[in-house]
């Protein structure tokens, strides 16, 4: 069966399942909010334990990364992502998942060529472009502050 690109696009559009955008947005909002509430709870907990604001923030961040990586390893984070969609992309937990998931997926290929090499397949471009754009921003800030 021969199809042109346009015919194929129309065929795919007809066959694609419809998604409820409002419901998906609500689920993402609630899941992201839940993750943020957990983060705020941890921040308050560490502050109540006697840590100053900066140390409590660091401890909270480390705990969220640890929890996200642990839940990814146990397969729970995938279930949360199916339920909450884009809400699980809250930066710190989403990044931890993006590093842990490929590491687990490729562990059968060995420690160096599997886990270590593939760990940053998803997160690597984020790091490269994040660092690169911050360097450019910093240089622009220095140049413009001298003018």
Question: Keyphrases for this structure?
Answer:
mainly alpha; 7 helices; 147 residues
What can you tell me about this protein's structure?
It is built from 7 helices and no strands. It is mostly helical and 147 residues long. It has a domain at 24-120. It is extended and about 70 Å long.
Short overview:
The chain has helices spanning 5-15, 21-48, 53-74, 76-84, 91-105, 111-118, 123-145. The protein is mainly alpha-helical.
Topology, pairings included?
Layout: H1 5-15, H2 21-48, H3 53-74, H4 76-84, H5 91-105, H6 111-118, H7 123-145
Helix pairs in contact: 2-3, 3-5, 5-6
Shape: extended
* Protein structure class: mainly alpha
- Helical content, roughly? over 70%
Number of strands: 0
Give the strand content. Answer: under 5%
Distance from N terminus to C terminus (CA atoms, Å) equals 64 Å
Tally of helical segments: 7
Low-confidence sequence ranges = none
